[in-house]
Each structure stands twice: as C-alpha cells, then as structure tokens.
C-alpha cells in the first residue's frame, strides 16, 4: 500500500527507470546495484533542502510504480528494487516529510524524559531490560526452580532418564527447608535429646546416670556437621547425575523461559557443573527449557498482627538458638510445635503449649491424638487447650508474654516464655509477582492447583512440594518429583496417591499414621464394611520395657467394586518408634494388600513391630496374644 496520497502522482513528473529484460515469467528484474545506487544518498548531505527534494521525488517515483502495478492487478510486478531495501523507504519517508531538526530533537528529548522516569520508578525492571543486552542464554530439557526435596528429587530422576536438567536455587546450599532448616537439623537435636530421655528411663531400670549439662557448642557442631554432610552429599549426587546447578534468584517469564539474577549480596550468578566448584556468570541468565518445574517451597506463617520479632520466633530461628531455652511458650498443635515441645521439655525446659482444640493433632484420628496429648502431659508439657492467642508482647527485655483467652471466657490470660515459638503452619512461596504475571492458578491460600501428576494450568509447567495443597512433607515431595520427571520423560507413572502418604511426628513418643481413619472410611462411598481394630500396646513386651504409653489401631474395609476382599485401609500409631513402624503399614495400604494376606506376614520376636503383626491378626479375626 502506498504511503502517499494519489493526487501527488498526477502533479509530479515521473522519471522512468531502466529495467533489465525479464527472464522466465516475464517479471522485470531490476539492476539491483543501479537501483540501490539511485536510492542511496551521501551519509551527510551537504544541502538538506536538496536532499529532501530528492527524497520526495524518489518516493513519488516509487509510488507511481506501485500504483501502476496495482492498476495491472498484480502488485508483484512492481520492480523489486523499488521495494527494497526497506530501511531506504523509511529514511526517505522521514526525509521527505519532516525537517530532521524539528522531528528528532523533540523525540529524543521525550525519550530521555521517559527513560529517566522509568529508571526512577522501576529501577529493577529497567536494569533487567537493559542488562538483557549482555545476558547469557542456556538451553535445557527441564528447568527446576527450587533445590529442596521437590526440586532435587525431580532433577535426580529426570537426569537418570537422560534429560538435561538445570536446578536453580537461591540458597547457598541445596536441600531446601528439609535439609537446612527442617527435617534434618530438627532430628539431630531430637536425637540428642532422645539420649537424655533414655537416661531418664535408665534410672527407672536401676542405672544411675544423670545429665550434668549440655555442651551446646558440641551440640551445634553435631547439628552443622550432619547438615553439611547431607547437603554436600546431595550436591555430589546431583553433579554425578549431570545436573547443572545454578545459584541465583529465578523468575519464570510469561513467555515461558526462566530469568535468573544474582541473589542479593552475591553480585553474580554461580553455575556448578562439578559439586562445590562454582563459576561466576557475569550479568544475568536466560534459561530456555521445554519444561519448567516449580518447587519454591514454603516459609513459616506469622501470627495474625504479630510479626516475628525479638523473642517471638519461628522454627528456623528456634533451630538456630545457641542453647535450649529455660522456658518456652509454643503456639500450635502440629508436628513442628510438638517436636519442639518434646525436645525442649526433655532438655529440662518449662514448656507451655497453647492449642486451639481439646487435643494436639486434632485433624488426626481421635485415639492417636488423644494418646499423644496424654503422653506429652505425662512428660510435663503444660498443654492449655481451647486457647486463642490475642497478642504477644515482645518488649526490649528478655522473653515475651503471650496473651490469650480461653473458650467461653473473655478473661485475658497470659503465659511468659524466654522464647515464644509460633508454629501455626507455613505459607507457600507463591506470592512473588511472577506467579500472577504467568497466570499460574492458585487457590485462596496460595497453593498452586495441580493434578495427581503435578501438571498446573499451564502447558509444560509443573509444580510440587509445599506449594501444592496436601501434606507438607519431604517424602510427599520426593514422590511427586519422581512422578513429574517420569511423566516429562514420556513414561507412564502411577499418579501420586495422597491417601497413602504417611505422616509422622517425631515427638516422645512418636506418632504416625497412613491412610484412612474409621470416620473417613465410613464417609467414603467407595468403601464398604469399614472396621477398626484396636491393639492394646502394653501387651507387647518391648512397649512394656520402653516405659512409654502408646496406641495402635488398624482400619480395614473393602472397596465397593470388590466387597468380598477386605484390605488394610489405614493405620494409626503412637509408639517410641512409630516412624519406623508406619513404613510397614504404608506398604500394605499403598499396595492394597488384602487383610488376610497381610496378617500372614511374620514379625521378628520380641520387637515393637510385633504390635503391628498382632493387630493385623486381630483384624483378620484370629488374635494370638490378645483377646
Ligand atoms: P523447600 O524444601 O522449602 O525448598 C524450596 C527451595 O526453593 C528453597 O531452598 C528456596 O530457597 C528455593 N527457592 C524458592 N524460591 C526460589 C526462587 N525464586 N529462585 C531460586 N530458588 C528459590 N518433612 C518431613 O517429611 N519430615 C520431617 O521430619 C520434617 N520436619 C520438618 C521440620 C521443620 C522444623 C520444618 C519447618 C519442616 C519439616 N518438614 C518435614 C517439612 C519439609 O521440610 C518440607 O515439606 C519440604 O522441605 C518441602 O520441600 P519443597 O521442595 O517443596 O520446598
């Protein structure tokens, strides 16, 4: 289409251009060099008016040619040289229409003002925009954001299946919450205090030992060395599998690539191909991948209107304390709260546990949670039920005071602790702007919606671990990671079955469960003949020796499509080693093993595991050592 009005054509004389004879289809083939020579002008024209006149003439000349071609009905018959190169059109158009001084100087001024405004208002965005000029770009099959259990398990399995994988982590060490500030450091401290618990029990058996003191320096070394060994081992394993590790802050782009910037305070991105040997990358990094896996994890949730400050701490800070506190108030009734309550109480701390309901682990099967509540109380944890925290006073002085009310009363009550640990849950790390910008679907609490294979609402974008709703547990994230990697690699994995994910609380005693409770089984339309079998724990010799109370119940029932074959549907345990016992229950529940076959399995004697074997026999209608 012409850029000019048609009237111009009639007014101006048209200069005819030389054309070469056409070859083949009769299409005129211009002498390209000649045509370009006609179109080009000196870079610095001596006479600006003359130049503009010439440009105008050339534009009209081209327009005429175009017009004639349109008249013949075939625009392609316009001489090629008249259409190319495009930049000469633009140059001539500008020359012909504008006085350069009048046009460019104001435009340049406007651009300058806009640039200053943008730099001031969005410094990060502007920097990101300009730094793209020297940004490195790398290609992988899979890019994974987050190096915790979800991210690294996906990486390990995907690499095993031959995929090229990059794992982007902002922390200095891999392993996420679990290895650095969750499962592993908490269990090292619990292992230490378990020794104290055993000593206390030893006294009851006539072994006169006492705990003189705790060397917190050594305890800290024990914790850091354990964590170091685990994180370094993980880095080595990932390197061995050929996974590229990038240390930086990752942002998924709406277009589907991953943009990495240096983490605050580091100044550059690090790229590890060998474990522990990072090479700096200048500027920023653009990662293009077929599939993107998001595993950004979670962080502790503060109390409403009471941010973590002073002696009001979260679980990460609690794990980093130099000593165990002499007194503590713990707010919460879940795994993290109960593990700290057990750990600190065993080490001699006065622990007050503020819980909302009548028992800890209130979402669990009733008998299990009631037994654990009783056992914690027996060990001296002061459990205040039906409490509602109103505010926490964290003054300049040591410690903090928690104000709370109790159900049915307006009276203000308070509890003081050298530390106050709020362990009321975790917030998924899905609130960065890029989740919104990429239109990743999240529920009201921020959890990303996924199917049982980890697929999100976006093609080739997957999510797992603590950012997805369900149990926030490392082993769930491992399983999700394996399934996602296999799905991406084109295998046919089984979907993740949230009903068969075991849950464990590493308190003293431990609590664990898997599968359905009796109430849940009865509520399910696809389950018939649901039954509960309770095993009296103290009829087991090892339980008796341990000095611990406990409970065990098994839920059995059949699926409606096969009502003749009862299966083990759930197990709920409180025992000193419930975390190990639940593994057997998980195999039975997860593999839908018929109850009759499960009851035939032999358990070594005398062990805690016999409790489970005996419970299965009883559920199958043939109890051995019980009535
Ligand atoms: P995370 O482990 O949180 O990892 C996410 C990673 O992503 C982090 O390293 C983070 O730095 C990184 N990241 C986030 N955003 C970005 C970004 N934009 N760019 C780059 N990197 C990013 N579970 C159990 O199964 N057993 C236990 O005994 C147990 N004990 C626990 C004890 C405590 C005190 C706590 C707090 C948790 C415990 N958990 C336990 C839970 C377990 O730690 C989590 O379920 C698990 O770590 C979740 O894994 P994830 O990969 O989803 O996330």
Please characterize this protein's 3D structure.
This protein is 38% helix and 22% strand. It is of the alpha/beta class and 627 residues long. Strands 3, 4, 5, 6, 7, 8, 9, 10 and 21 form a nine-stranded mixed sheet that branches. Strands 12-19-13-14-15 form a five-stranded parallel sheet. A hairpin with a 7-residue loop joins strand 25 and strand 26 (567-575). Mean pLDDT is 87; it is low at 1-46 and 123-133. It binds flavin-adenine dinucleotide (FAD). Residues 145-151, 168-171, 176-178, 182-183, 186, 249-250, 295-298, 315, 336, 429, 465-466, 472-475, 477, 506 line the site of flavin-adenine dinucleotide (FAD).
Write the layout of secondary structure elements.
Elements: H1 7-11, E1 20-23, E2 27-29, H2 32-39, H3 48-71, H4 80-83, H5 86-97, H6 100-121, H7 123-131, E3 136-145, H8 149-160, E4 165-169, H9 176-181, H10 183-204, H11 216-240, E5 244-247, E6 249-252, E7 258-261, E8 269-274, E9 277-281, E10 285-294, E11 298-300, E12 312-313, H12 315-320, E13 327-331, H13 335-346, E14 350-354, H14 366-378, E15 382-384, E16 387-393, E17 400-406, E18 413-417, E19 419-422, E20 426-428, H15 433-437, E21 461-463, H16 474-488, E22 503-505, E23 510-515, H17 518-523, E24 527-535, H18 541-546, E25 551-559, E26 567-575, H19 578-590, H20 595-599, H21 609-619
Parallel strand pairs: 3-4, 3-10, 4-5, 10-21, 12-19, 13-14, 13-19, 14-15
Antiparallel strand pairs: 1-2, 5-8, 6-7, 7-10, 8-9, 11-20, 16-17, 17-18, 22-23, 23-26, 24-25, 25-26
The protein binds flavin-adenine dinucleotide (FAD).
């Amino acid at each position: 289409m012409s850029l000019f009005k048609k009237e111009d054509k009639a007014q101006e004389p048209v200069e005819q251009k030389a054309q070469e004879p056409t070859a083949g289809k009769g299409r005129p083939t211009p002498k390209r060099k000649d045509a370009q020579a006609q179109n080009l002008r000196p870079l610095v024209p001596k006479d600006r008016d003359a130049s503009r006149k010439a440009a105008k003439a050339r534009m009209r000349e081209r327009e005429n040619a175009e017009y004639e071609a349109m008249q013949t009905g075939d625009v392609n018959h316009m001489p090629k040289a008249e259409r190319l190169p495009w930049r000469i059109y633009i140059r001539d158009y500008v020359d012909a229409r504008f006085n350069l001084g009048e046009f460019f100087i104001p435009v340049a001024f406007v651009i300058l003002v806009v640039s200053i405004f943008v730099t001031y208002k969005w410094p990060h965005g502007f920097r990101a925009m300009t730094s793209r000029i020297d940004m490195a770009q790398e290609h992988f099959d899979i890019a994974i954001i987050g190096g915790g259990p979800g991210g690294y398990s996906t990486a390990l399995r995907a690499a095993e299946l031959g995929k090229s994988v990059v794992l982007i982590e902002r922390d200095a060490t891999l392993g996420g919450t679990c290895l650095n500030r969750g499962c592993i450091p908490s269990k090292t401290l619990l292992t230490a205090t378990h020794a104290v618990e055993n000593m206390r029990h030893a006294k009851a058996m006539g072994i006169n030992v006492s705990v003189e003191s705790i060397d917190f320096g050594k305890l800290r070394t024990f914790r850091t060395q354990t964590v170091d060994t685990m994180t370094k081992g993980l880095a080595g394993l990932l390197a061995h599998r050929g996974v590229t590790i990038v240390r930086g802050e990752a942002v998924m782009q709406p277009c589907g690539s991953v943009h990495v910037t240096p983490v605050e305070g580091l100044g550059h991105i690090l790229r590890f191909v060998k474990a522990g040997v990072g090479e700096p990358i200048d500027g920023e990094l653009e990662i293009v991948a077929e599939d993107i896996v998001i595993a950004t994890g979670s962080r502790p949730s503060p109390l409403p209107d009471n941010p973590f400050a002073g002696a009001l701490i979260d679980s990460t800070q609690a794990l980093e304390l130099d000593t165990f506190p002499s007194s503590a108030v713990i707010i919460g009734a879940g795994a993290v709260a109960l593990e700290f309550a057990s750990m600190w109480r065993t080490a001699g701390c006065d622990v007050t546990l503020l819980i909302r309901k009548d028992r800890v682990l209130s979402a669990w099967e009733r008998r299990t949670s009631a037994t654990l509540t009783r056992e914690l109380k027996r060990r001296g944890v002061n459990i205040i039920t039906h409490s509602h925290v109103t505010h926490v006073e964290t003054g300049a002085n040591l410690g903090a005071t928690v104000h709370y009310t109790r159900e049915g009363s307006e009276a203000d009550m308070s509890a003081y602790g050298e530390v106050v640990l709020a362990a009321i849950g975790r917030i998924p790390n899905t609130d960065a702007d890029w989740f919104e910008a990429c239109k990743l679907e999240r529920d009201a609490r921020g959890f990303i919606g996924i199917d049982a294979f980890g697929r999100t609402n976006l093609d080739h974008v997957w999510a797992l671990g603590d950012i997805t709703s369900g149990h926030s547990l490392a082993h769930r994230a491992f399983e999700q990671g394996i399934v996602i990697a296999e799905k991406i690699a084109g295998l046919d994995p089984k979907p993740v079955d949230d009903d068969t994910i075991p849950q464990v609380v590493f308190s003293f005693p431990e609590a664990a469960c898997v599968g359905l409770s009796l109430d849940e089984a009865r509520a399910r339309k696809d389950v018939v003949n649901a039954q509960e079998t309770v095993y009296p724990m103290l009829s087991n010799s090892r339980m008796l020796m341990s000095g611990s109370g406990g409970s065990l119940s098994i839920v059995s029932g059949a699926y409606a499509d096969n009502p003749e074959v009862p299966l083990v549907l759930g197990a709920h345990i409180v025992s000193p080693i419930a975390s190990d016992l639940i593994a057997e229950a998980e195999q039975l529940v997860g593999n839908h093993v018929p109850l009759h076959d499960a009851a035939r399995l032999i358990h070594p004697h005398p062990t805690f595991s016999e409790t489970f074997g005996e419970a299965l026999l009883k559920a199958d209608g043939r109890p051995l050592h019980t009535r």
